[in-house]
Design goal:
The protein is of the alpha+beta class. It contains ten helices and 20 strands. InterPro entries: AmpC-like, Beta-lactam-related, Beta-lactam/transpept-like, DUF7586.
Amino acid sequence: MAAVLEGTARALLRRLAIEQAEARVPSLLATVLRDGEPVWSGARGQVEDAPPGPATQYRIGSITKTLVATTVMRLRDEGLVDLNDPLDKHLPGTAVGEVTIAQLLSHTAGLTAEPPGPWWERTAGVDADTLTASLDATAARHRPGRRYHYSNVGYALLGELVARHRGVPWDEAVRQEVLEPLGMRDTTPRPRAPHARGYAVHPYADVLLPEPEHDAVAMAPAGQLWSTLGDLGRWAAFLALGDQAVLSRATLAEMREPAAVDDADAWTGGYGLGVQLLRHRGRRLAGHGGSMPGFLSLVWADPADGTGVVILANATSGLRPAIGTDLLDILDAHEPAVPRAWRPAQCDTGLLELTGPWYWGPAPYVLRLRSGRDLTITPAGVHGRASRFAAREDGTWVGLEGYYAGETLRVVRRPDGTVSHLDLNTFVFTRAPYDPAAPVPGGVEDDGWR
């Protein structure tokens, strides 16, 4: 592990120590990553009269959902599932079969947060058939697609969808397809030694109450897994930088796109396809928090620079959510990242003729060639629509973000092979403002500019 400087390490440990003492958490672990690699780890408190270590397991709660969602996206990439499919196509017979796979992944299906019956997180679970039979019309709390409404039930249904497609329990599919390729061999559905015991801390006295722990069975995809600091560090690195053995970079980026916002007035927090999103001091973080009786956990990762943070604690409540971003802030303040050295890119130099200024009407834009055959179009002034474009095999490009996401960019050439203009989903970009030599929609007056 490439270590941070001594002063940075002390500042990080001090922040962790303050949290453990003031939040009164029996034990607390953290690791910080840079460029996808751990650069600092710390621990406070005790587990069974000894400091917790990197191999100590904690229950990770809803971080489980990100692993389930990754497996669902693998099914999508294989063509077995379409995100617009209704649940009934893959899991027929439920009372909520009209909701789509994408809505379940993004918590926009409108389903109830918790299943019928006693508090599922502290009681023994039921099988999938019993769970689905217990759902009726009241399980729909909102019109599908209307709003973000977190639903543990939705992920129970997604776990069963995975099991039916793979022919093995959901956790076995996750192990084979996600955990093993990433080297996360200490992540398991049930605890193994050494592991922390989950506790509730009395609100007005420094005493503990052991929390019960059960196999959640059908509800397990919503929060069953146990893991370690090292394994979750690998998961943070995956969320930031990806791994082609698990998901394509494009699919992972799709998961990190905001599908819903849970604080619409401020838009600091949102949800993608199985991952929580947070905007913090210029960072766009992706990850998830976890909460089960006796345990709290957190993973944040920044795909822009591979920075990440992992938090594990064995307390039902009390941990302040800012602990994760506070550690990232300390790292940035004490050791700001040094930009990577600029290097020439391997690109198609035959496209150099397309680079430079273009005009949409009178508005100036700049086209740049990136690696391979990829392009960017950005406004030359303050305002305008920018986007990246990925090359297609047919010689066109597809927009990857913003207004032009999914739209087609074409280079239109004259009979002699020279470039006439760019056609971006009917918008014509020309080399001069409203170039009369190009087929500008609506035409250009013969008298020209005056």
